[in-house]
Every structure is written in structure tokens, then in C-alpha cells.
Write a structure and sequence with these properties.
By secondary structure, the protein is mainly beta. 9% of the residues lie in helices and 37% in strands. The protein is built from 8 helices and 34 strands. The strands form 8 sheets. A 7-stranded mixed sheet has the order 16-15-13-18-23-20-21, with no helix packed on it. Strands 2, 3, 4, 6 and 10 form a 5-stranded mixed sheet that branches. Strands 17-25-24-19-22 form a 5-stranded mixed sheet, with no helix packed on it. 49% of the residues are buried.
Length: 543
């Protein structure tokens, strides 16, 4: 990683009043527009919009179901996919597809997922939004090495040459490079070879979750190359509601990408071999693609009935923000009726004309296409985009007669509101870029094993996040509730249980989080994946 040039762009303390002067015109633009990243253009002709049919990821079937739970198997593998028409793209995948297959589980029932790594690189799997024991959460140095790698030195299967072989493997794939980053020492982690089993006890309500690669220093290129998929949790409360089901319940993964002339994914890695982490200088604040993919297809289309549809919106982009609107809006507006957030159902629906969604956030919305005339083409637009990135996909409203008994009830769920007076501690986490250390939390880059907080199991804490430029902040283990922005109330898209909150430039957000069920070391970090890979992470340990 070329840190010297990167660190020269920063400042030790960056705020609204000093950022532009310290970091130049690009930072001033970020303060005004609030949108990070730099566009990386593709090197081949892009297809017309609204030609490709919308694919829906296949549901992964259990390999075994018994009294202990449902057992799944997934192979991480290289696959040649036709993402752009007539072009083959080599992807890193779960199960040979992008997105990976959707894992569907039940609240209260254990799900066990065994991952096998047949990729050319190590991996780490994190179920984003999962309420998960620490040993299955996807700590970024808990590496799963490819099949055939040398056994870890402390393994019973290790040979005398294992130590040197492991050093070679880590050096090839970036772990050695981490030692050269200030404040980011080498950490062994729980390294295994070939296969790793993750156990998800299911102690959480119905929600739209997702799983993705979480390897330290390489989350950005791993997700960019295809390592992402949906993980849906269902429960009896949600089942009892008259919400859209079956083919009218659609997971939609939004992801921008760029392509090289040969059809491969184009990514501005400082080291094209990905032996060392980091991106080139121009992309330190995030990589933006010029192709908008939905479920892995470019600007797709869907024939819809004149009926209610549930859209499970996920922003799986590395750094891109979206402001989503339907065009045309239905008569009377309120086109997007939000029923859920990161952590599941809201207490009551909220109607929006637009939704702003930051990387890793999820919004469950219901759209009633019966409000449109038959034959209407309804585009899903991105008002934060320009040119081709201003369009996402389209829905073509059918004229065929259908039966639709779905509706959105006035009450959706009983959602406990956390009480700020019960908070036993208040903690500040400052997300900044420093001249010395780059992207930091509380002035320090990530140090595996060094916790910034030690909350007690069963307690509620008030956490305050503040930003210099834009940072979507993600907290592992437990969902939280947003209680304020900049000393005022929550924003229009902060309702419900969240695990990722969108911080705009020079903004402060307060949340309440209660730590339940599982002790151990977890993480909070920026989910701009280039920021994350450049050390904007921190540990906290629940005791």
C-alpha cells in the first residue's frame, strides 16, 4: 500500500471548518454534496438499459435438517459469468453465482453453514446484521485458507514446515503487508484450512440480512469481485401479516461495478496481484462503478402484476450512495412504503417518495403497482447518480388480471424502544482521516485485538458517532436505535432497528445499543469498503 501519498491528503483533525483547507477541492465537494468516491469508468461498450430480465438468486437448500437445526454447505469458487451480454467475467463467488444463493432461516432455529474455500485467496465470512456468537461472526483475521494450503503451525496436522508455509501464504495474500501499516500489527487470528463451519443460533427476529467477505485489508476487492449474497430470517410474527409473498417478495441487491476491456471486473488496486492491500490515490475515498447491477444484472427489467410487491433493497456497493425514487410517481405520491429496516419490521409503516440508502443498509418497502395504468414503465431512479448511474432498473406493469390479497397493515410489529435513561455509559467514536495514520477511529487505525470499549453483557449504552466526510457506520453483534442527529431527532430513514447508520459530512449521530446473549470481541467500522480496508475499524469486547 502506498501510504505516504495517501497520508499526505489527510489532516490530524478534520471538521467542517478545516477539511476543505487541509484536503483540497475534492474534500470541499464532499462537504457540499455529501457523496464519497470517484468514478472508475469501464473500458468496453455498455449495454442498453432495461434489456436484461431481473434474475432472482436461488434459495440454498439445506444439506441436512434435523433436531439440531438446518445444515447448509457453500463452496467459495471462481466462476466465469455472463454479467454483461456476450462477455464473460471471472468472479469470486459463493456457489458459482453472483449474488450467491440466498440462505433462508427461521427465527429460533439454528442454522449451520459450512464454507469450503476453493478460491485462490483466503476468505472470511460475515453475516451482516446477524446476531452471532463471536467465533462465527467473521472477525477479519479469522482466515479460511484455500483448500490445499499448509496447515496452521498450531494445528494437529501441521508439519515441521508449516510455519514457513503459512508465512508464505499470508505474504502472498496481504497479511504480511499489514505488518507494515502503522498501528496494524500482524495478528494470527483463528486460521483454518479448507473448510470452516459457522453457527447461527437464530436468536433474532425476521429481517433482511446479507453475507459477504470480511477479510482484513481485502473486503473491498472481495465484495467487488462477487463475494456477497442474501441471508433472510423469517418468523411467525411476520408470517401472520398480509404482506406480499412468493414471487412478489423480491430481494434486490444494488451494486455498481466497472469492467475492463476483456470483461473482467476493473478495480483500482495499488497492487494488481492483490498481494498487498489498498487502492490507488484517486480512489482512497471509495470506488464508484459506472454499471448499476441489480442481482448481478445490468439495469434489468421486471414484468410486474398490478399488485403489491415487497422489495428488499440492499446497497451492496463499495462506496456508492443511492437516492431511490420511482418515475413516474403514482398518483398521490408516497410510492415507497417502508415496512422494515436493517433489523426487521418497523412498528408501523412509513411512506416515502424517496429513500437514501448508504452502503450495507437495507430497506424493506412495499410498492402497489395497481396504482399505475397497465402498460406503464416505472423506472427506479438514483437521484444521486449521473449519466448511466442515474437509472437502476425498471418495472413494466402488466395488463393481465390478477388476484392480490396483500396489503400493508397500520401496525406491523411490537418494537421495544430503548430508554436513554438506562444507558450505563456514553462513548464517543470519531471517524476521521488523519495526516499520520489515514482513516481512523478515535485517532487510531485498526489494531486487531485492541478494544476501544468493553460493554457489559445485558447493559444499554449510548454511542455517539461523528464524522469528517461521509461514513456509513456498521456495528456487529446487536442492532441499535438512532435517537438523534446533530442534537435533533432522528432522520427520515432512521426508524426501527439498525445495524448501519449513514453519517453525512461533519455530522454527529447518537444511538442506543443493548448487548445481549454473546460475550466476545466484535467490531464497529465504516462500511465504505475502501475506508474499511484502509484501517477504519475498531474492536469492542463484550464482557
Amino acid at each position: 500500500m502506498n501510504r505516504r501519498r495517501f497520508l499526505g491528503l489527510g489532516a490530524s483533525v478534520l471538521g467542517a471548518g478545516t477539511l476543505a483547507a487541509v484536503a483540497g477541492p475534492s474534500a470541499a465537494r464532499l462537504l457540499v454534496e455529501g457523496r464519497p468516491g470517484r468514478l472508475l469508468r469501464s473500458q468496453l461498450d455498455l449495454p442498453e438499459a432495461f434489456r436484461a430480465p431481473l434474475p432472482v438468486p436461488a434459495v440454498l437448500r439445506p444439506a441436512l435438517s434435523d433436531e439440531t437445526g438446518d445444515h447448509y454447505e457453500l463452496t467459495q469458487q471462481v466462476a466465469s459469468l455472463e454479467i454483461l451480454p456476450g462477455v464473460r467475467t471471472e468472479a469470486w463467488t459463493y456457489g458459482g453465482t453472483f449474488p450467491g444463493p440466498t440462505v433462508v432461516t427461521r427465527s429460533g432455529r439454528t442454522a449451520v453453514v459450512r464454507h469450503r474455500n476453493e478460491l485462490p485467496v483466503p476468505s472470511v465470512v460475515h453475516v451482516h446484521g446477524g446476531h452471532t456468537p463471536a467465533d462465527s461472526d467473521g472477525y477479519p483475521v479469522d482466515l479460511l485458507l484455500p483448500v490445499g494450503s499448509a496447515a496452521p503451525p498450531d494445528s494437529p496436522d501441521a508439519s515441521d514446515s508449516s510455519a514457513s508455509s503459512m508465512a508464505d501464504m499470508r505474504g502472498m495474500h496481504g497479511m504480511h503487508g499489514m505488518q507494515g501499516m502503522p498501528g496494524m500489527p500482524h495478528a494470527e487470528g483463528d486460521t483454518v484450512v479448507g473448510e470452516r463451519t459457522h453457527t447461527y443460533p437464530g436468536r433474532q427476529r425476521a429481517a433482511t440480512l446479507w453475507y459477504h467477505d470480511h477479510r482484513m485489508g481485502f473486503t473491498g476487492p472481495g465484495v467487488w469481485r462477487g463475494l456477497a449474497g442474501f441471508h433472510l430470517v423469517h418468523d411467525e410474527e411476520e408470517d401472520a401479516l398480509p404482506l406480499p409473498r412468493g414471487e412478489r417478495d423480491l430481494p434486490l441487491m444494488l451494486a455498481d461495478r466497472s469492467f475492463a476491456a476483456d470483461g473482467s471486473f476493473r478495480y483500482p488496486a495499488e497492487d494488481p496481484t492483490l498481494a498487498e492491500p489498498g487502492v490507488t490515490d484517486a480512489y482512497m475515498n471509495g470506488v464508484l462503478g459506472d454499471v448499476i447491477l441489480v442481482n448481478g444484472a445490468p439495469w434489468p427489467r421486471l414484468d410486474t402484476d398490478r399488485a403489491h410487491y415487497r422489495l428488499r433493497l440492499l446497497n451492496a456497493s463499495n462506496a456508492r450512495l443511492y437516492r431511490l425514487e420511482l418515475d413516474p410517481r403514482p398518483p398521490g405520491g408516497d410510492a415507497l412504503v417502508q415496512i422494515g429496516s436493517d433489523g426487521g419490521l418497523l412498528a408501523a409503516p412509513i411512506a416515502h417518495d424517496a429513500i437514501e440508502i448508504a452502503p450495507a443498509e437495507r430497506f424493506d418497502v412495499v410498492v402497489d403497482f395497481s396504482r399505475y395504468r397497465p402498460g406503464t414503465r416505472v423506472r427506479l431512479l438514483n437521484r444521486f447518480g449521473e449519466g448511466r448511474t442515474a437509472e437502476v432498473m425498471c418495472f413494466d406493469v402488466s395488463s393481465r388480471p390478477v388476484v392480490d390479497d396483500a396489503r400493508v397493515p397500520d401496525r406491523l410489529s411490537t418494537v421495544e424502544e430503548l430508554d436513554a435513561s438506562e444507558a450505563v455509559a456514553t462513548r464517543d467514536f470519531r471517524f476521521r482521516r488523519s495526516r499520520r495514520d489515514g482513516w481512523t477511529i478515535n485517532g487510531d487505525p485498526y489494531r486487531p485485538g485492541h478494544s476501544l470499549a468493553a460493554p457489559a453483557l445485558g447493559t444499554v449504552e449510548r454511542w455517539r458517532f461523528s464524522s469528517d466526510v461521509h461514513h456509513p457506520v456498521h456495528v456487529h453483534l446487536n442492532h441499535f436505535q438512532v435517537i438523534g442527529r446533530n442534537g435533533e431527532g432522528p432522520g427520515p430513514w432512521d426508524a426501527g432497528w439498525k445495524d448501519t447508520v449513514d453519517l453525512r459530512p461533519a455530522e454527529a449521530v447518537e444511538v442506543l445499543v443493548r448487548f445481549t446473549d454473546y460475550a466476545g470481541t466484535y467490531m464497529l467500522h465504516c462500511h465504505n469498503l475502501e475506508h474499511e480496508d484502509m484501517a477504519m475499524m475498531a474492536d469492542f469486547t463484550v464482557e
